[in-house]
Each structure stands twice: as structure tokens, then as C-alpha cells.
Specification:
The structure holds 2 protein chains of 2 kinds. Chain A is an alpha+beta fold. Chain A is built from 6 helices and 12 strands. In chain A, the strands form 3 sheets. Chain A has a 5-stranded antiparallel sheet, with no helix packed on it. A 4-stranded antiparallel sheet of chain A has the order 6-5-4-9, with no helix packed on it. A 3-stranded antiparallel sheet of chain A has the order 1-3-2. By secondary structure, chain B is α+β, with helices and mostly antiparallel strands. The relative contact order of chain B is 0.16. The chains are: A alpha+beta, B alpha+beta. Strand 1 of chain A pairs antiparallel with strand 4 of chain B.
Chain lengths: 272, 155
Amino acid sequence: MATLTLTLSAGDIKKAVKSDTYITGQIDKSADAVKNASLAYNESAGDDSYHEVKLYRTMKGAVSKFEANMVEFIDPSSGSNVANTLTSSTGDDTFTITIPVGSRFYAAFANTLSALAQEYIINIMLYTWWQSIKPALAKDYYQFAQESLTMVTKTLSKTPPSTTMQTYTDVTGDIDATYALSFDLQGTKNAVTKTVTSGAQTVYQDVFFNGERQTLSDLQVAIDSDWITQDTESDWPQYVVTANSSGSERTGHVFFSKGGKSIILTLTQQTA
Amino acid sequence: MTITIATVISAIKRHLSIIGKRLYSKDGKNMFSDITLSSAEYTPILTQYINASAQDVEAVLKQFITASTYSDSTISMTIANTRGDNDFETRTQALAESYITLNSVGEYLSMTHPDLAQKYQRDAKQRIESLVEYVFYKKPPVSTFSFTNPTGSVS
């Protein structure tokens, strides 16, 4: 699971809405400066308190509409809510929209997505502003909003599926006299290393994945992309070391588990 | 803005004096005594025109007026335009006083000299139109361009 965070400027959004409506007001005023003075004033959004109330309300609504349009990209397993920090006290400051997305969400477009989200919100606000004043103009802004939304959708893509089988090329380990287990798991990516304290030697290695025994030569550790990002074994979700001895052998187990997947490394040392 | 009634009456007197001194009737009679009022008449008669004209101003600017008071000596109106011109109050008062003066002269003359009154009523109409245009002026929302880049991140 990942969290997409978009940071937008409430001040810039309001400035854009005010500027657009102001331009329309000035064009109307240019037709008849005296007769249209009041019209131009009142259709130019801001800064009268009742204008600001409408601007905040429509901004909050537009943000919610944007969030709703993201529903198909939300990671349903995250348990987190879609949220935003826009409140009436935000003023002209920035606010954030946070959306739980899948771990394969293509982050390269995050900035573009943020700009498009801002554009969408502006256009929805303008659509709402003109809806009761100039319905024909409102339709244009609705069209602009839909175009913004189409572009938003285009930026929402997933990265290709990551390699689900992670090959590790070598496993070495040691069980010392106190039965402490050390191991060194080498692979093409994110090798897991546990420093061997003494008597390191190559040992028998049996590797089980989801309960099935794997041979060392084609050790394939299935690992999801969350795990791949971990660099050291201490960052792995969980591991338990057990060790015991029997006759001439010492045997240790390392157990990793997350999300129903598990990896068991069994290291056996011949002591005789 | 606070309009002092005595100031407006003084302006009205000047208009009426000019008319009276410079204009003559068809039979060649100077119109000064016809048009001007006695000192005792000026204040009570003109004050009612001034109050009525001030109420015109209040009516057309109601959207911006949060309070108003009328007394024997002054008329006060609290006018606010959050995006008005920088010198908003001073210029609004000047235009309002001008309208009240011209309209009061027109109202007064219309009783006895309707032909002369028309000129003042036209001027008063233009002045209140200017007042409306000025008060309904809204400054552009942005004086300098600045833009914060929207940003996005995935963590």
C-alpha cells in the first residue's frame, strides 16, 4: 500500500476563479460601463464575505468530487480514508489531499496529477459559479472540468507487475556453539546480510517457500514489492530464529511472514 | 462618509446665485430675487431636498452601506467595498455631495422654473451614474502574479 499526497494552493485556486470571473465582468462592463457596473461587480467573484462563503463551499465540494473520481484507484486493503485538509480556516494556504493507492501506483505523474487536480477544482468552481448566472458559460467550464478529469485519469497508471520471483544466488550461514544463527542471503536485489560472528562456513541450506521445499540451485523466493524495498533483514516484517542440536548437527530456522506469505530458511551445520 | 448639510447648502446657494445674477426673464427682469431664497428659508427648504437626495444615494448604494444616520447637521453613511479603489471613501463622498447638490437645485427649480431645472436634473442623473460606476468598481483580484506549483508524492 502507498499513499498519494497532493499539495494544492487554496489561494491560487481562488485567484484563478476570481480572475476568470473578473475578466467576464470586465467584458460585460465594456458593453455599457454605466448600466453594467453593478452586473460586473456582482458577477466578479470575491472578496465580499458572502462571495468567499460560496467560494469555500464550492472548493470543498470540488475537492470531494475529485476524490470521488479517484475511487477506482484506491487500495481497498489499506484501511485508510481518503482525506483532505481543506477547511474554512485554510485561507490562502496550501492544503493536501491524501489517497491510499496500490503499491504499483505510477508515482512519476504525481506532480502532473496534482496540477490537473487543481485545474479540475478550478473549473468545477467556475462551473458552479456561472451555473445560476450564465448557464451557457457554465457549460463551457463543465466541459473544461471533464477534460481535466480525462487527463487526470490518463496519469493514473500502474507500473508493470514487479518480478514476483526473487532469485537469491547464495545462502551461507552459521550456527555457533550458543546456537545463535547467522546467515547471509545473497541475491540480485536487496541482499539480506547478517554478519557471521565466527566460524562462517557454507552449510546445507533448505529453503521453504509457503511450505514447499526449494533447492538451493534454483532458489526462488517469492516476495511482494513491499518486501523488495527492504534492504536488511531487520526491516523484514518478522523473523524468528530457533536453533537446536542433535548429534553432529546444529539446525536453525529463520522464519519470515507477511500477508499470508512466508519464507523459512533452514540452515544445518555439521559439527562433527 | 459624513456629509455636512451646511456645506451642501452653501454649494446650492452658489448655484442659485449664479442663475439669479446672470439670467434674465423674457421681459428683461433680473431673476435673482425670483430664484434665491431668504436666509430664513434656505435651511428648512433645502434640507428636505438634501435628505431626499441622500436617500437616493443610500438606495443605489445599499449593497455597500452597513449603517446610516441622518441629523439636522450631518448625514453619515458607512460604506465598504473590500476591493474598491484606494481613495474609495473620499471620492465616493465627493461624488455623493455633488449629486445631492445638483439634484437639490433641480428639485427646487422644478417648482418654479422647470426649464432651468431640466439642466440640473440631467447633470444630477449623470453624477449618480458616475457614483454607481465608481462604487461598483472592483479592483482586479491579482496585482502581481505568483503561483505555487502544485506538488504530488507517493510514499
